[in-house]
Specification:
With about 240 residues, the protein is of the alpha/beta class. It is about 40% helix and about 25% strand. The strands form 2 sheets. It has a 6-stranded mixed β-sheet, with helices on both faces. The protein has a 4-stranded antiparallel β-sheet with strand order 2-1-4-5, covered by helices on one side. A hairpin with a 2-residue loop joins strand 1 and strand 2. The structure holds adenosine-5'-triphosphate. This is Amino acid/amide ABC transporter ATP-binding protein 2, HAAT family.
Length: about 240
């Protein structure tokens, strides 16, 4: 048995003719919150897309609870228990909050189970219960981000990948949304998140990886990274 929910080794990936990841490696233990941080364009989204099966790596491997899942398509990964919440939310604006949530449980056939999951996500995000029949596009940015996370949780993942939750949110909401991540972990969901907001992400994570131009340049327990002079200078503006 492996200790790792997710083990990524020497991942190379990119887009047609554009190499982006140059040998990324990291591990996530069950129950951890792990943050991958770095500047715009460092390759954070590409990392999550590759791990979640939306993008095939050129080389390297991804193991999920010890099983080699490298290159498996995203819908297979969801069934295995790994769900990706994309950057920019990608919710269906014309559908209601509830309809968006139900789409997240697409692999589930039992109505009873879907209802239980809805109750679970409403307990995490009470505001969504108030918005049940509201069109998603009419919700505020913060509410839409909560809806996107909740939709991801509707698949009852073991591991959830969260892409840039803070994007486009006002500062007061960034902390609120990130605090919800710590709640998610209490339900036994392991979290891998990527963020440009280095400080806020490391504050809630157990461990962090700093990536630059598709390579891990620093990693360690979040509290060590937060104390690092290099991080303070390069990312925290101190
Ligand atoms: P951001 O916060 O801006 O999303 P990021 O760290 O997540 O940054 P990526 O989105 O992974 O970075 O992008 C890494 C590099 O890959 C960038 O140079 C970007 O221009 C390039 N890239 C991203 N998507 C594509 C694509 N579909 N086709 C070609 N190049 C792409």
């Amino acid at each position: 048995m492996t200790d790792f929910a997710l083990e990524v080794r020497d991942l190379y990936a990119g887009y047609e003719g554009v190499p982006v990841l140059h040998g990324i490696s990291f591990e996530v233990k069950e129950g951890e919150i792990v943050a991958i941080v770095g500047a715009n364009g460092a390759g954070k989204t590409t990392t999550l897309r590759t791990v979640s099966g939306l993008l095939r790596p050129k080389s390297g491997f991804v193991k999920f609870y010890g099983e080699d899942v490298t290159g498996l398509p995203a819908h297979v990964m969801v069934r295995k228990g790994l769900t990706y919440v994309p950057e920019g939310r990608r919710i269906f604006g014309k559908l209601s909050a509830k309809e968006n949530l139900e789409l997240g449980a697409f692999k589930e056939e039992s109505r009873e189970v879907i209802e239980q999951r809805l109750e679970w996500v409403y307990s995490l995000f009470p505001i969504l219960k108030e918005r049940i029949n509201q069109k998603a596009e009419t919700m505020s940015g913060g509410e839409q981000q909560m809806l996107a996370i909740a939709r991801g949780l509707m698949s009852a993942p073991k591991v959830i990948l969260l892409d840039e939750l803070s994007l486009g949110l006002q500062p007061s909401l960034v902390e609120k949304v990130l605090q919800i991540v710590t709640e998610i972990r209490r339900y036994g969901v392991t979290v891998l998140l990527v963020e440009q907001r280095v400080l806020e992400a490391l504050e809630i994570a157990d461990k962090g990886y700093v990536i630059q131009s598709g390579r891990v340049v620093m990693s360690g327990p979040s509290k060590d990274l937060l104390e690092s002079e290099e991080i303070k200078r390069a990312y925290l503006g101190m």
